[in-house]
Amino acid sequence: MIRAARVARQVLWLAAIGAAASCGDKSPTSSVPTTGSLAIATTGLPAGASPSITVTGPGGFNRSLTADGTLASLSPGNYTIAAAAMVFGGSIYSPAPASQSVAVTAGLTATASIAYTGQPIPATCRLPARFSDLGLGFPRVVNRQKVIGDVRAALVFVDFSDAVATRAPQSVFAILSPTAENYFRAVSFGRMNLIFEPSLVWRRMSRPTNAYGWNALTFALHRTYIQEALDLAVGVDFTQSDVVIIISNPDAGALNNGPAFLASPGFGVTAGGRTFLNAATSGRDLINWGGYWLNHEMGHTMGLPDLYAYSGSGHRFVGGFSLMGLISGHSREFFGWERWLLGWIDDAQVTCAAQGTSETVLSPVERAAGTKLVVMPTGPTSAVVAESRRAEGYDTNGQLTPGVLVYFIDTSIASGAGVLKVLLINDADTNKSTAPLQPGGSLTYAGVTVTFVSQDATGDRVRVVR
Ligand SMILES: [Zn+2]
């Protein structure tokens, strides 16, 4: 019976509110609360660091907070509290949760808490590696091939009963050479000297092309294919080779593309008593790509990831920049970052931007001397990077608009998933030949601003604020 009485009282109370509202009477019933409060508390931030919190809610409510506090006089309803990561004292502080929803009730104070965790931003700009096969982090993956000095690639040519070669192996070899050697010599500024060791005879594989599983190629199937080709290469001297390349008859057969083979220790292929953890195999698309196919696949055997997208619009990340993005792109030169990772430019040619405002003159990446990169770390594995691009060298395969190319790297992102993105991010632009900043231009990303101050024949002056 007590319960029934309480319900009855509540009904009367609500009726009293209704009466007050309808006549505007300032009777005691008007003190019944119609709004609530929201208290927001943060933990984990050092003294002096101000969080950046945005609260949105009913009726277009939108309020920013830079400190703990209580928002009063809120209409009841659901409020979203979003907290941004923030940089302070050389560390980046990430909020958890980054976003949360809290119900505010009339007459009550709801609470929301945000816990920040700080991680140091790398002081050296050499963002750390996060993958054991391919990646843009330092150090370069240890199992990938040599990239400095003479690099010897053994070439074995194979054909099939259903795809008997009609061209001379010399003519297929001429697709690769000297295109591929010249590219690496130029882009490495003479530091890598690719030497082909071709065995110019077609060797017949035991099975037809469709028996090698190319339409659903696995590591094991690929390994079996390469090993059979190497076993056929009787009399070939592999003692000086750094990498092995299997060239298939490009005119026919089910080997439609030409992937790289990247093994961990214990899973390589063997030839002449030696083990190789790095190889590449050509397919029919060699005809389409030409010799730069080898530069792309050898980019992988050197440890570089794919910069195009494995899913969705294929060239939305880097467009035609770097042949690790698009082999036939307008600007095939490797990004300055890729070359730094490979040891083709020196640490002294990379400016790691100090906090605050600084200026750097960037020498075009197509030229050997000078400062090639300015790097602005934005997190434990990420940075905004700026480099100068001119329509020179291998950046002349289309209509590149020269200027300061700015990009974002996150070394925790896998090959083919956007480890490097040209800025500003614009998924609709899958070419990006006009992406470089022009003199006077500026862009801001991840809390970093890059301004292209001026340009002359020797380079591009940029001002960065981080
Ligand atoms: Zn690739």
Keywords:
16% helix; alpha+beta; Immunoglobulin-like; binds zinc ion; elongated; 5-stranded mixed β-sheet; disordered N terminus
Integer-rounded radius of gyration: 30 Å
Sheet of most strands:
5 strands, mixed
Low-confidence stretches: 1-28
User: What level of helicity do the residues show?
Assistant: 10-25%
* DSSP strand count: 25
Give the DSSP E fraction (strand runs of 2 or more residues).
Answer: 25-35%
The outline comes out as: elongated
State the helix count: 7
Mean pLDDT: 91
How is this structure best described in words?
The protein is α+β, with helices and mostly antiparallel strands. The chain has four domains: 1-32; 36-120, Sandwich (Immunoglobulin-like), CATH 2.60.40.10; 149-301, no CATH class; 336-465, no CATH class. It is built from seven helices and 25 strands. The chain has helices at residues 2-23, 169-176, 179-187, 219-232, 286-289, 292-301, 336-342, and strands at 36-43, 53-57, 61-65, 69-74, 77-83, 86-88, 91-96, 99-104, 109-120, 149-159, 192-204, 243-248, 260-262, 269-271, 274-276, 278-281, 350-352, 357-362, 373-379, 382-389, 403-410, 420-422, 442-445, 448-456, 459-465. The strands form six sheets. It has a five-stranded mixed β-sheet with strand order 4-1-9-7-6, with no helix packed on it. Strands 11-10-12-16-13 form a five-stranded mixed β-sheet, with helices on both faces. Strands 17-19-20-21-22 form a five-stranded mixed β-sheet, covered by helices on one side. β23 (442-445) and β24 form a beta hairpin. The longest helix has 22 residues, at 2-23. The radius of gyration is 30 Å and the shape is elongated. Residues 296, 300, 306 line the site of zinc ion.
